[in-house]
Design goal:
The protein has helices at 3-24, 44-47, 61-89, 93-118, 127-153. The protein contains 5 helices and no strands. α4 runs antiparallel to α5. The protein is mostly helical and 170 residues long.
């Protein structure tokens, strides 16, 4: 298998990991009395046998891919924290299940959108970098959406929990 084809397959697998595992095994599964939990986005690099993202280096495409992976992991951590805060503010399990459903649907959308955007460079070494840039953009937008949702939820709350702030852009 040629390197570009292998990298493309690896990209698709990495982008699929979060939505696949969230859809198949959501932490919020309401299975026979188990406690309902918020959907958690897993670390896609651990799922595929890597213990960490690639090294960040703006001078190479693999290094650029690593920079995007590292930024994406940071944003995944924020998204998971945001999801937990909002989940705890919801008034019943039906609302919590709807939040989990929305998160799984968003993960599926983000994956499909980023794979589509990377098709511009299909077969090339830049495809995973473009997908990474897209994922960072999608994650940032989702964080903003969740922050808006949080703001609506706390309007009638006397002492709401703090909302996690995303790290400053580097």
């Amino acid at each position: 298998m040629t390197r570009p084809v292998f990298r493309r397959l690896a990209l698709l697998a990495a982008l699929s990991a979060a939505s696949l595992f969230a859809a198949v095994l959501p932490a919020g599964a309401d299975i026979r009395g188990s406690k309902l939990q918020p959907t958690v986005i897993p670390n896609p690099y651990q799922v595929h046998g890597r213990s960490r993202p690639l090294a960040c280096n703006d001078n190479t495409t693999i290094g650029q891919e690593g920079c995007q992976e590292r930024q994406n992991l940071t944003l995944i951590s924020v998204l998971n924290a945001d999801q937990r805060v909002i989940f705890g503010l919801l008034h019943d399990n039906a609302a919590r299940r709807r939040l989990n459903t929305a998160q799984v649907a968003w993960l599926s959308y983000a994956k499909a959108d980023c794979v589509s955007q990377s098709d511009v460079y299909e077969g090339g070494s830049e495809a995973p970098v473009i997908a990474g840039v897209c994922l960072v953009s999608q994650d940032t937008a989702r964080i903003a959406d969740l922050k808006t949702f949080y703001s609506m939820l706390i309007q009638a709350t006397a002492r709401p929990p703090a909302f996690p702030e995303p790290p400053a852009a580097s």
